[in-house]
Design a protein that fits this description.
Order of helices and strands: HHHEEEEEEEEEEEH
Number of strands: 11
Strand order of the largest sheet: 1-2-3-10-5-8
CATH superfamily of the largest domain: Jelly Rolls
Helix content: 25-40%
CATH architecture of the largest domain: Sandwich
Number of domains: 2
Largest sheet: 6 strands, antiparallel
């Protein structure tokens, strides 16, 4: 009885092994080809990896070179930092009433592009109603700067701006200004900077030409 059971078990193992093995030469060739065939996408991955590594090195090299070139160009165009005592003052142009002094802090107010200037005015200085062809941004550095909107200077109206005060005047908006004490303001905006007086007779440059 035990011998019969052993014989039956041996035949069952032999049948299982035979079923798992390829039953023909054709099947053996197919199995061999499947095992030797590269996995899908492996060749593409091997081609892409060196390219990606080379591209990464190129990007890193460009990132190290370009900022240096850009920063050098910016440094050549940049206005050096300056302390207030080093600002150079001179007479204001003839389109500004006499008595004021002007300093160019950055840029060129006579050309296109951003500029920053400072205007120093004595007490009781008046700028009749005028406008500008470009936007004007005014920051009060010191003193008492009075500003108002309208076609004619009216000292009963307007707003008093102290140190740190700010005013924005859009292009072609008529406004006027005056001071009650020595006052310094900083004017910034896009150039070229120009003053168009509402009343041409208020233009000091035309008065000086007479």
């Amino acid at each position: 009885m035990r011998s019969c059971l052993h014989d039956h078990a041996d035949r069952r193992r032999a049948f299982t092994i035979a079923w798992r093995r390829p039953s023909s030469l054709c099947e053996q060739l197919v199995v061999s080809e499947e095992r030797s065939k590269p996995k899908e996408g492996s060749e593409m991955k091997r081609a892409i990896i060196p390219f990606a590594v080379a591209s990464g090195f190129a990007v890193l090299a460009a990132a190290q070179i370009l900022p240096k070139e850009g920063s050098q160009a910016a440094e050549m165009q940049m206005t050096p930092p300056v302390n207030v005592e080093d600002i150079k003052w001179g007479p204001a142009p003839p389109t500004i009433p006499p008595g004021a002094q002007l300093a160019v802090v950055a840029g060129d107010p006579g050309k296109e592009g951003l500029f920053t200037i400072r205007l120093k005015m004595p007490p009781n200085f008046k700028v009749p109603a005028h406008n500008h062809p470009t936007d004007e941004f005014v920051t009060v550095i010191s003193g008492d700067f009075r500003v108002g909107l309208g076609d004619k200077l009216d000292m009963d109206k307007g707003l008093s701006l102290k140190a740190g005060g700010f005013s924005e005047m859009p292009a072609r908006m008529n406004h006027y200004a005056w001071t009650t004490e020595e006052t310094v303001v900083q004017i910034a905006g896009p150039g070229p900077f120009a003053i168009n007086y509402v009343n041409p007779a208020d233009d000091p440059s035309k008065q000086a030409a007479k």
